[in-house]
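<goal> How does this chain fold?
<sample>
Here is the protein in question

***
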Amino acid sequence: MKIMQVEKPGELACVTASAPCLANEHSVLIRIHAAGICGSDIAIYNGTSPVATYPRVIGHEFAGEVIETGSACTHIHVGDHVTVNPVVACGTCRVCQKGRSNVCANLEVIGVHRDGGYCEVISVPEANAFAVSKEMSWEKAAIIEPYTVAAQVASRGGVQAGDTVLILGAGQIALTVLQVCKLLGARVIMTDLVEERLQKARTFGADEIINTGKEDIEARIFELTDGMGADVSIDAACVGKTLQQAAICTRSAGVVVTMGFADRTVPITELQITKNELDIRGSRLNNDKFPQVIAWVESGALDPTRIITHHFPFTDVLQGMRSVKEDPEHTMKVILTFDEK
């Protein structure tokens, strides 16, 4: 079979490899039909991921058909259409025992720490495979994962109906968070420097937009919230100053959620945090969010395909990455397609 493997930063090759066997009796074998390109895949290729190891078959957003199951499997069957949770936790460490498996002390992520979905066949733990309706398109099933990330962000923020949520940044990730927050009944304000992105956010349901290149974000937020600030502020831009802005623009007893992964110092004062008793929380991957997101998609409450803009054969992953880099204003989610078998 063909695999797309990052040999080392900046070097990605299409390699012919033997098809895998089941890893163990608790595993399932999946023939992949569609996969998505995420910014973290590009970071692994570029060598800027702080957690990836090499060489690595990348890809953590994917879906396919189950072609074999281990003898101990009970809920996934041959012929099932599945989407895959890339979070592999040990289940036994103190963090897992506290119900926070997405930050497991022994965490492995498919496509990051172990080989991922840019291949034709993959073996994954049965616990990481989630059956979806056979009526669901492969591309829709493949990008359920980014929406579980968005659901995790909303969960960490405690977003609920009636909240005013500030999302800093209006890129692809921010749009998924926007969709989830609107589904939960929140009022959403979005910021960005690029007007085209903000207008796209409008079409995705943003109630208010702020162009931070033209407007004072702090003044505008307090104007839109009767001087209170946002109930929840989510830093989806992750450029350093946006976390500081989020803290400033959040009301007393509010919540700030950051998705950033950079090793940088951000100037937030103790006074800001203590005076307003802010909760500042990180959000990583997802913690058991697949069932909820699958239910949203299957019910029609959430349409993940709205963020898809491009399709490429999976062996053209570099071309897909170039689209993201060279035309970011018009490229959101890139889907990689696989030959039918």
About this structure: The chain has a mean pLDDT of 96. The two ends are 12 Å apart (CA to CA).
